[in-house]
Write a structure and sequence with these properties.
This protein has about 525 residues and is α/β, with parallel strands linked by helices. It has 19 helices and 18 strands.
Length: about 525
């Protein structure tokens, strides 16, 4: 069980939640919803013990599993195989490692003492379910779309999407009494999403999930906590039922606010008309003033619109030559077999190339090579005349902790601060957020900042790696609209079917074999799977 009492959360010097209380019991399936920046991820970090609360109490009964939004990069994690990292969810990786060391020692010294030590270690491993656990871990990884061959690789050589799957499998394997999941379907294909929804539906512990995946929210949850304006409102039912109830609440509150405003105006006008007449009428006016004050202090605020419409605009890019990019014989490897090899293609002015392939096929690796973030293992590529590439990295590598949000744009543009703040506002990053430490932003806010960096850089070739991950629906739609009419060249990786359809790619590059085909809407069925 998870219990929260009078909790306040502060991020970057601003209070995102104040005096929040709720309980999530065993069997509860709760969705945490709200616009980007409302404080969902920050609340999960406090509940998961990553960050301290500004005030209040969080109590957790039993073990807690917390899937963070961005996979961790730690040497000990990157060096472990995917299976071993999943086993670490119950500490079985350490037991297995100790047993293997004792086995080697036994081969070198088959003494009675060595036999006893190995025997005791094996008994502990078996008692903890170690032998069955290996098969269970592999089943979880397979359900989430990581095949047996990839499961044997070190975590550090896996793609960002694969690392995310491994971390999710580790959390699910841990057998926790409570789960906190932040965007668990990011990087999952349709089969893996279906498997996850089935797993969560049968989960018996307390579940609190943040997700913009409406299908998951409808299938897996029975309660909604809506975060807005520093408070939490609870709704029972699925996400679809919540939306209907929320819409009814907003209509009701809007009507109430309108009636209150009308009454306040009526009494204020009446008081003003009596104020400068007789002494008796002046006393009545003062009495009316007090009634107005009471009404104003008790007045409800107009509800924030459920889906704020953003008006994002990517400026006209500088003109390039006909050829924007040409690649020849590109290959990438990480100490083992090539992720891809012999990949060659070209992109011309205004073309949009969608890079497709299963997780681990090398989509992110290819974009990193083209962005100059990593050198290729073989082959080469060249940019055309006047080409300026802008890279959107799915793990937000261009956003640095300790550096204010506004400074990230000032490093790229000599436009006045007022113009840059207007650019941030276009992406919904308004007010004091401009001076906030960028490392404290939510995943959705980091996505918006990274996209704002692309705009500030005035690039004419965009390398986009899953740019809609972590975005709420209205933000996703706004970015799609803006990019659909942008005349520059793009190389794109995305599992978002609606986003890809709106961008209408010119061609598709399929990895790892490097086949290039003309785009057809028939390929949309493969986007969510590839």
């Amino acid at each position: 069980m998870l219990s929260v009492r009078n909790l306040s959360v502060e991020v970057g010097g601003r209070l995102t939640l104040e005096g929040v209380s709720f309980t999530v019991r065993a069997g509860d399936k709760v969705g945490l919803v709200g616009r980007n920046g409302a404080g969902k991820t920050s609340l999960l970090k406090v509940l998961g013990g990553v960050d301290p609360p500004a005030a209040g109490v969080v109590e957790v009964q039993g073990r807690l599993g917390f899937l963070v939004q961005e996979p961790r990069h730690l040497a000990e994690i990157d060096a472990a195989t995917a299976v071993a990292h999943v086993l670490s969810g119950r500490g079985l990786d350490e037991l297995a490692e100790r047993m293997e060391k004792l086995r080697i020692a036994l081969e070198e010294d088959p003494s009675e003492r060595a036999v006893l030590r190995y025997g005791r270690s094996e008994e502990r491993f078996a008692a903890a379910g170690g032998y069955a656990a290996d098969a269970e871990a592999r089943t979880l990884l397979a359900g989430l779309g990581l095949d047996s061959g990839r499961a044997e690789l070190p975590v550090g050589v896996l793609s960002g999407g694969e690392r995310r799957r491994v971390e999710l499998a580790r959390i699910l394997f841990g057998g926790s009494e409570a789960l906190l999941l932040d965007e668990p379907t990011n990087h999952l294909d349709s089969d893996a999403k279906t498997w996850l929804m089935g797993f969560l539906a049968s989960y018996r512990g307390a579940l609190l999930v943040v997700s913009h995946d409406l299908e998951l929210l409808d299938a897996a949850i029975t309660r909604v906590l809506h975060l807005d304006e520093g408070s939490v409102v609870e709704y029972k039912g699925t996400y679809s039922q919540y939306r209907k109830a929320r819409a009814a609440d907003e209509t009701r509150l809007a009507r109430l606010a309108e009636r209150q405003a009308g009454e306040i105006k009526r009494l204020s006008d009446l008081a003003e008309s009596m104020r400068h007449q007789t002494a008796k009428r002046a006393r009545v006016a003062r009495s009316l003033d007090k009634r107005v004050d009471r009404l104003q202090s008790a007045a409800v605020d107009l509800p924030r619109p459920r889906e704020r419409r953003y008006r994002v605009r990517f400026p006209e890019p500088p003109r390039t030559g006909r050829l924007v990019l040409e690649a020849d014989g590109l290959a990438q490897a990480y100490g083992g077999p090539p992720v891809f090899e012999g990949v060659g293609f070209s992109v011309e002015r205004g073309e949009r190339l969608l890079v497709m392939g299963l997780n681990g096929a090398g989509k992110t690796s290819l974009l990193r090579v083209l962005a100059g973030a990593t050198p290729p293992a073989a082959g080469s590529f060249r940019l055309g005349r006047g080409v300026s590439p802008g890279y959107y990295a799915q793990e937000h590598e261009g956003i640095r902790s300790g550096v204010p949000v506004l400074e990230h744009l000032r490093e790229l543009s000599d436009e006045p601060v007022s113009e840059l703040r207007g650019l941030l506002g276009m992406f919904g990053l308004v007010g004091e957020v401009a001076f906030q430490d960028a490392g404290t932003l939510s995943g959705g806010e980091k996505t918006k900042l990274a996209l704002a960096q692309l705009v500030a850089g005035r690039h004419n070739l965009l390398l986009l790696d899953e740019p809609t991950n972590n975005l709420d629906p209205p933000s996703r739609e706004a970015i799609g609209r803006a990019l659909s009419g942008w005349p520059g060249a793009m190389i794109l990786v995305s599992h978002d079917v609606g986003f890809v359809a709106e961008l209408a790619p010119s061609r598709a590059l399929v990895l790892p074999d490097g086949t290039v085909d003309s785009w057809s809407d028939d390929l949309l069925d493969l986007v969510a799977m590839a």
